[in-house]
């Protein structure tokens, strides 16, 4: 379907985006051969420099527990976000943008790896060494990915992603938008199961 695509706005360190992962994968599997999918990093807490206070950590983990109860996905609570952790989502978002620039077909796979590392393995995906390790096997040139990660153009493109989210008026994530020659149609802003998304998307596609 020419010039028609799904815009997927999400952040690898957003718990509801992690919860939405299986639904998005089903959406891609069902429609990816007909319409393209563009991953846009939303920027949950980009540029945050504050150490996560204990009270806020408990609040975040409470939300994780809600996502786990709703979706059945696995979370690692015990070692997550240890003392001194800074919840800055810009590095992980920028790494996704770097992967998108170098190997566009691997961007979603890399996004999934980041989520799994952060939520299931309690790894610190704000650290460059972790971001580089998780990219192994997805690009043919590890040095090129490392260079792209810190390229000023990648930093600029990441900020443009954050700006695009706000241009679309999206406050919550995950969000999925149908882009077509006549404009944009919001499929969802927030978690929705695949079957609901499928019905909505089929109805929208009949109109474009």
Automatic annotation (TrEMBL):
Name the UniProt record assigns to this protein: DsbA family protein
Gene3D superfamilies: Glutaredoxin, putative protein disulfide isomerase domain
Domain spans labelled DSBA-like thioredoxin: 11-201
PANTHER family: DSBA FAMILY PROTEIN, GLUTATHIONE S-TRANSFERASE KAPPA
A UniProt-annotated Pfam family: DSBA
Superkingdom of the source species: Bacteria
InterPro entries on file: DSBA-like_thioredoxin_dom, Thioredoxin-like_sf
